[in-house]
């Protein structure tokens, strides 16, 4: 999403940041609560109670219950049934990206594989397009006929995947840039 020196700087940060740490994952608790709620066939009231219980500090207490409430509003009267979402790795030019959607839900009879967006700020269109193209390219073969999407919880909206050949070419070009620069940063 960046160009020139800021892009190279961001790649250096990514390369040297170290492995994933659950302690630095602000939304981990609410993400697990949502998965647990749907996978266990629990109710909206369970989700609300668990979101509050997992808000272990003041910052989380300001966000987790609100996220749970917005998710319940999105849920509405939909009939939801859980399935394990597929996971895969997308690769191009020697660069690999893990694609791990959180939710696999049959919504009113149609399979949906959803990546969750929790932040207050709306997702920019180009970020949505990149995420959806990665999901579609990596996962479409695993669940033919499923709707792949990003669920923007705060705005209660699913952004569905629509194949975009230009975006696919752009992703390949970006991975060529990353592969070329990676050894030098």
Describe the protein's topology.
Layout: H1 5-16, H2 28-39, H3 44-54, H4 58-75, E1 80-82, E2 88-92, E3 95-99, E4 103-107, E5 110-117, H5 125-139, E6 147-152, E7 157-160, H6 165-181
Written account of the structure:
Helix 3 runs antiparallel to helix 4. The strands form two sheets. A five-stranded mixed sheet has the order 1-4-5-6-7. It has a two-stranded antiparallel sheet with strand order 2-3. 46% of the residues lie in helices and 19% in strands. The mean pLDDT is 94. It has 185 residues and is α+β, with helices and mostly antiparallel strands. A hairpin with a 4-residue loop joins strand 6 and strand 7. The chain has six helices and seven strands, in the order ααααβββββαββα.
Summarize this, please?
With 185 residues, the chain is an alpha+beta fold.
Percent helix range:
40-55%
Give unreliable regions as ranges: none
N-to-C span = 18 Å
Query: What order do the strands of the largest sheet run in, or round the barrel if closed?
Result: 1-4-5-6-7
> What is the averaged pLDDT score?
94
Count of strand segments: 7
The outline comes out as: globular
What is the subunit arrangement here?
Answer: single chain
Largest sheet: 5 strands, mixed
Please state the CA-atom Rg, rounded to the nearest Å: 18 Å
Coarse structural class: alpha+beta
Number of helices: 6
Q: Beta-sheet strand percentage?
A: 15-25%
Q: State the order of secondary-structure elements, H for helix, E for strand.
A: HHHHEEEEEHEEH
Supply database-style keywords.
19% strand; 46% helix; 6 helices; alpha+beta; 185 residues; 7 strands
């Amino acid at each position: 999403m960046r160009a020139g020196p800021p892009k190279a700087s961001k790649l250096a940060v990514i390369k040297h940041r170290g492995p994933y740490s659950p302690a630095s994952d602000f939304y981990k608790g609410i993400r697990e609560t949502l998965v647990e709620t749907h996978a266990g066939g629990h109710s909206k009231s369970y989700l609300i109670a668990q979101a509050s219980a997992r808000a272990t500090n003041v910052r989380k207490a300001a966000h987790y219950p609100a996220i749970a409430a917005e998710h319940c509003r999105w849920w509405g009267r939909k009939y939801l049934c859980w399935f394990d979402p597929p996971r895969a790795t997308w690769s191009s030019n020697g660069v690999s990206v893990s694609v791990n959607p959180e939710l696999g839900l049959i919504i009113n009879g149609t399979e949906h594989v959803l990546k969750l967006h929790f932040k207050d700020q709306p997702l920019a269109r180009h970020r949505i397009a990149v995420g959806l193209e990665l999901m579609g390219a990596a996962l479409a073969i695993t669940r033919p006929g499923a709707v792949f999407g990003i669920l923007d919880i705060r705005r209660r909206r699913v952004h569905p995947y629509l194949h975009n050949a230009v975006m696919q070419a752009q992703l390949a070009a970006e991975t060529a840039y990353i592969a070329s620069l990676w050894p030098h940063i």
